[in-house]
Amino acid sequence: MDDRSVFHLISDVTHEEGVSCVLIGGFAVNHYRVTRQTADVDFLITKEDFDKILGLLEKAGYKKALSQENFVQLHSSHLSLLDVDFMFVDQETLKKIMKEGERFKIVG
Q1: Beta strands in the chain (DSSP E)
Q2: CATH number of the domain bearing residue 34
Q3: pTM
């Protein structure tokens, strides 16, 4: 495992599998200069797209810590990678949020 951030990793695996996800939660709020402490990174994604990237995330050292019908929490065995939460939405909802949301660069 190299020293890349969780944001690089998620970007790489979603691009590799041709899927989309949306950053939500504390890191998304921080973009608007509203500081919010957070210990993980939260994303919206479809369940089908999550299933496509899970294997790559597991290869990077992530394991399921909690799994429910509409939510999965992944824990990393690498101290340099934050835990990641994925909340599942249907494709129509994800497309609407992506269309109406704001794009911004997180990593270089």
Answers
A1: 22-24, 40-45, 62-68, 71-76, 83-88
A2: 3.30.460.40
A3: 0.86
